[in-house]
Amino acid sequence: MTTGIRKELSDFMSASRKFGAFGHDRNGNIISIHGRELKVENLSENNEGKPYFQAWVDGAQDDGYTHNEAVENALKRAIEAAAKS
């Protein structure tokens, strides 16, 4: 029985470490993308208190009205930039 649980856990951990897999915090925000560099800044204070975020993935920058939207937009730009090079 223990072996089965270990295998399931191992399979789960392997799947979660695939290139491009997201890591999340307790609030559901994307805090890492395996194999990529990620930076996110909350600029809501500079936007009259309205939610506004900027994110960089592998140097490609984009923004969004939520943390995850900014990350996903920046990731799309990073993928597009990699495809062009």
Task: Give the SSE map.
Elements: H1 2-16, E1 22-24, E2 30-33, E3 38-42, E4 53-57, E5 60-64, H2 67-84
Antiparallel strand pairs: 1-2, 3-4, 4-5
Helical fraction equals 25-40%
Structural class: alpha+beta
Strand content: 25-35%
Low-confidence stretches: none
Q: What's the helix count?
A: 2
Listing every helix as H and every strand as E from the N terminus to the C terminus, the arrangement reads HEEEEEH
Shape: flat
> What's the main sheet like?
3 strands, antiparallel
Mean pLDDT: 86
Strand order of the largest sheet: 3-4-5
| Rg | 16 Å
The number of strands is: 5
Note the gap between the termini: 49 Å
Notes on the structure:
The chain has helices at residues 2-16, 67-84; strands spanning 22-24, 30-33, 38-42, 53-57, 60-64. It is of the alpha+beta class and 85 residues long. It is flat and about 35 Å long. The N and C termini lie far apart (49 Å).
Protein traits:
39% helix, 3-stranded antiparallel beta sheet, 85 residues, flat, single chain, two-stranded antiparallel ribbon
Summarize the entry for a quick read:
By secondary structure, the protein is an alpha+beta fold.
